[in-house]
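Exercise 7.
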Amino acid sequence: MDSRKRRLLIVLMTALLAGLTLIPGVGAQAQDGIVLSVAFPEFMRNILGEDTFAQFEVDNPGVRVNVVYSSMGSFFIASPTQSLTDHLDAVREFVSSADVLSVQSSTVSVEATRAGYFLDLSPLTTADPTLDVDDFVPALWQSFQWDGGVWALPVSTDVITVVFDPAAFDQAGLAYPNPAWTIDDFANAARKLTQTDSSGKITTPGLVTLGYTQYLLRALLGQGFYSVGSIPDAPSFSNPALETLLTTWVSLEQEGVFADFFVGDITDTPLRIFSSLGIGPRRGDNDTPPASSLLPGGVGGLEAQGFAVSSGTLYPEQAYNLAKYLTNHVQVANNPFGVAPARKSLNGVEPQTSGGDGGFFVGGRNFSPEDQAIIDAGIANGIPVAELRYGEYVANALSTMNANGLDARAALQQAEAIAVTHLQAAADRRGTTTILVATPLPEVVMQPGEIALNFGFLSFIRPTPHHEQWDQLMRDFAASDPQVGKVNMGMDFGSASEYAEQYDCFYLPYNAVPNLDQSKVLNLDPYLDADPTFDRNDVVGNALNLVQKDGRTWALPVTIQPEVLRYHANLFAETGVPAPENGWTIDQFNDALRTLKPTAADATPFVPRGAGGTYLLQLIAAYGAVPLDKRTDPPTVNLIDPSNVAAIQQVLDLARDGYISYSELARTEFNIKVGGETVDPIYTESLNGISVRVRVVEGNEGPDPYRMTTYPSGSQYSAVSYDMGTAYISATTQNADACYRWISAIARQPELFSAMPARRSFINDPAFVASQGADTVAIYNQFDALMASPNTINFQSPFAGDSNPGNFLVEFWMQRAFDHYVLQSADLNAELAQAQGYISAYQQCAANIAPFDAATQDRQAYLQQFADCAALVDSTVANLFGGPG
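Solution. The predicted structure, written as tokens, is:
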């Protein structure tokens, strides 16, 4: 599997084209009428303000900047080691999108620069007297330089270090990692830290590199994987020290104590190679935060961000000036992927967060003094990105050794030959490929009497899927609507109330109605009643009821985002398990688990990949119990009824016996698992566009072996869990009618959303069936029927709206009881009784808290009342609200 897709911080970078004739004062004589396009990842819409380029345009008269937001494909560009053709085709498409490109080190390949897709900036940097090279961190300045060229200007960086769990090291009696560690030290620690189940099967490897294998290899080796002194350089893997290192590494992988990836919550891994995102507090029963150390040799691995210039630009000097300008822009330098700016002069300078989401900025990420010292040292003594070139080929040699039984020398020779072949194939493209930067779309000219409709779109997925289709719909709507001349889409992170204050209308990927300040939005009933295209009976299940409050409808249901199960049809067939094509009973589900895992040593058949423990509640309901019922407010909780305890124990015993993969639930952060290089017989998936599905079966070729089905049903109850995507009209808008026409239009375009339409007529529309496939539509119809059944219990997902902001504590105490029973073999009855006592006392206290009044109350002070109630009944939860730990 492509290691780039495993990382949380992945994206864009590369460059090549030389021979420009320059004069001092680069770009001083700007040409009139120049429009420069700059490509940014879409989530940076909120970071870029209206004035981001104002000073640049003042300094460069006649030059205007046009921003292009890149699609998801620009992030997950295929690695050249996996498919050179796919990699170069994707890079070519990317560099054709704009003159200047926001890029990341994971896409900076020698193959792309040899192909001539990016402009060599070295003639421009050499001739520019205003460029202060000394202002850049040296390792970052060098990061995009090889073959005698400068392929991008760095703007920021993250740092890769050794991240570890001090509590696990203490328990194992191990000294903490330090920069003097060798491969033998890592091996010794990994063996002692590796976790096994009761049968001796490894459940958690001691060391997980999480796609950063080449960083640790490079640090341990102490030198690069390329020949020194030649231009262009060449891969060079003939190194006895490297052969010895790989031989040891493969033996540790085969032993199971080293792994490149981990299916599960990465915070459960005691030792890992990871970015700064892995450093921070962990709350719950284990509140010991992870610690970090520099890589061997006292270095940090750099993941740099920067700006490259397309070789297809018509304005190389102006494009270079824009790239240089952006490296000195504090707002841009504090982007979500970086932990520090590349320029020394910007270090410690706080960005202004007005007009954007400050939570995405580096300045919003706080580290302990110890961790900050490691980060600073890792950057100051960083391995430049350029030093990692050809590292993915070396990492692939490890896979070849494992898969084909080759020794290190043979595997490295094969990897080097492949690299050389790829470089030649890339160079051959240079003379046959023409890069043309796309012409910017003309600005929309508003006609007299037309309005600009300001639409807010909250998405947890960045970049937003289908953004090109969204752009087209906005243009088409404006062209056809008699009143609207332009639709402006904003994508800040914020609450429903904040969106209502900022936009005419807006879409949220959840149902905000239960906790909604109704004065902020309009009642939609008059619009729905007057709309001949809307039929209340067409809305699936009881979705319309869920957006109603006080007898009025406050939101338009747009999408349903159900939680489903995916099962491996081939494995089911091979083991004789009947495929649950039309659903299954809880007995059939139970039989399937036991058939798929005939012995204790076999793999766990059921792997939850979502957030929280909703999957457990759905299974418990199928066994005939509803210990937590959110159909009432506050939720009805009964954890001590003997029949409820029996149903809970039946499900939790499946986890204790290895039939269900179980991770600690009682935490304040969500833990979302994604698939790795394993074949899970059954796993959970929320159809909301957030989930990441990785094909690792059958070499990623052939039809997808996974099929969807619903959760099992019981004789008394069935259960579902889903979010809703909902649209609203602000109470303060002057364009309410136009807003309704717009939100109605988006609701009629289900292909814009990676989810189930909220209206069954759209589910079964032939065009939608053709785009989604008959199997998916069949599941949607099945889910619709379940939603409408009186015997179906709806368990809200962790992201659903809730009328009581403190209700999460009810689940916390219940889940902590589950954790203690499954993970610590505690007495279940005692744990549930204690949780019931905490919950009852807390609900009695919280019942005295008056509803929030935005006009007279501070939001934080209001929430503090729930924290006070919680701490009053259970002092151990104080740290959930910012206390110690």
